[in-house]
Each structure stands twice: as structure tokens, then as C-alpha cells.
Write a structure and sequence with these properties.
Length: 230
């Protein structure tokens, strides 16, 4: 006999918080109900009958604060675009953006730079249109170090998947940009050390970006000859 299945796939980002520390994970519900066999053989999949399960989940998400939704989104393109579309003005007053710190003291810009889910298309609008996060907040955070003395640009060089995305984390002030490009963190890692770890960007293009911004030959040689703490 021909067998028919009803399938539903629900994915949710779930935020766990304990002792003022948080972690976001993705939970996937695969709901399958065999239409010709007894439902008791698939006790979990019987949830598929209850349409209210999905609607209740969506309602819970909508009732969360913007900051909670932003944290749960964890920079996934679909979720970030959703928030940008529905709550554009909330970014300007978000306490999570202005005050949050990761486990190593990294601010929101650092957390974004350190996340490989970021896509250039939405990140450019979020960081450069001035319709979302205020310009002065972005520039202030780009100039702030985390507990290990690293700037957001350093981790962008390591984690972002394109040169265009990396460039979003370069401070606009020439003086501040020069300082960041020519700094060591506390582990003696330079921007060169972070950049050559990136496996998603062509190495020749990465080295060209680094060379264009670290023009002092003496500093360049110092950076490539200095071993990091590891």
C-alpha cells in the first residue's frame, strides 16, 4: 500500500541562562505522523496534530523583549533580518547592544565580529546605514578591547567570511584604525596573526588587506617574527 507521511520541521533558537552566563543553541523538532499506522507507535510525532504547538511557540517569541530576541538570534541572517524589519528603532535603544559583554569582556561589536554566522548583506545595513545602531556607539565599541586586549577587528579578520564583512569592523577614525591595525593583544597576537588563521578568505587577498593597512616595514617584520603566547 502507498504510505503517506505528514512532515513538519520546526527550528528554534533556545537561550539558556545560569549564573549570569548565557549560551544559545538550536533545537530542531521533526514532526512526522504516519497517516496509515496507529499513532501510538509514534508517540512523539503525535504533537504534529496540535497546530497550537507552533502558534504557541511563535506567540512566546513575540512576547519576549527585543533584547531577549536579539540575544537568541545569535546573528543568524534570517533572524537578524526579521528583527531589522519588524523592530528597526529598537536597535537604537537596546541595552543588550550597549551593555552586554561576553565571557571574555567583549562588547556587542566584538560578539558580532567573532560570529561566523554574520552575512555582509544585513551587516552592512545594520552597521553603516545609521538607521539602526547609532554611529557613535559602533565607533566607540570598535575601539574597545576585550579582557585579552583584542579589538573587534582582530576577530573579524579571523572569523568573517569575506573581506567586505571584515572591513565593516575597521574604525572610521584614521587614528583609531591605525592603532588597531598596529596593536598586539595580551597574547602577543597581531592582526596578521588573526588574519592568517582565516580559512574562508583567500590568503593572498587577506595578506593584501593586511599589507595595505600595516605599511610600516619595521612593524610588519616585528609582527611576523613575534611568537604569540601559545
Amino acid at each position: 500500500q502507498h504510505q503517506q507521511y505528514l512532515r513538519k520541521d520546526i527550528r528554534m533558537n533556545v537561550l539558556f541562562t545560569m549564573n549570569q552566563k548565557s549560551i544559545v543553541t538550536e533545537v530542531q523538532f521533526i514532526l512526522k505522523q504516519h497517516l496509515e499506522l496507529e499513532q501510538m507507535r509514534y508517540p512523539f510525532y503525535c504533537i504534529g496534530k496540535h497546530e497550537s504547538f507552533l502558534f504557541d511557540s511563535l506567540k512566546i517569541m513575540q512576547e519576549l523583549s527585543f533584547d531577549a530576541q536579539l540575544q537568541i538570534a545569535s546573528f543568524h541572517p534570517r533572524d537578524m533580518s526579521h528583527l531589522m524589519l519588524l523592530y528597526p528603532h529598537h536597535f537604537q535603544h537596546s541595552q543588550f547592544i550597549t551593555s552586554s559583554r561576553d565571557l571574555h569582556g567583549g562588547n556587542f561589536m566584538f560578539q558580532m565580529a567573532n560570529n561566523s554566522h554574520v552575512e555582509y548583506a544585513y551587516a552592512k545595513v545594520l552597521l553603516q546605514s545609521e538607521n539602526f545602531i547609532p554611529f557613535d556607539v559602533i565607533q566607540t565599541q570598535l575601539a574597545q578591547k576585550n579582557d585579552f586586549g583584542a579589538y573587534p577587528l582582530m576577530f573579524a579578520l579571523w572569523k568573517q567570511s569575506s573581506l567586505d564583512a571584515i572591513k565593516l569592523f575597521i574604525p572610521k577614525s584614521p587614528e583609531q584604525a591605525h592603532l588597531v591595525w598596529n596593536s598586539f593583544d595580551r597574547l602577543k597576537m597581531s592582526c596578521i596573526g588573526y588574519g592568517v588563521r582565516n580559512e574562508k578568505v583567500d590568503m593572498s587577498s587577506m595578506l593584501r588587506l593586511l599589507r595595505d593597512n600595516i605599511q610600516d616595514e619595521h612593524k610588519w617584520q616585528n609582527f611576523i617574527e613575534t611568537p604569540d603566547a601559545n
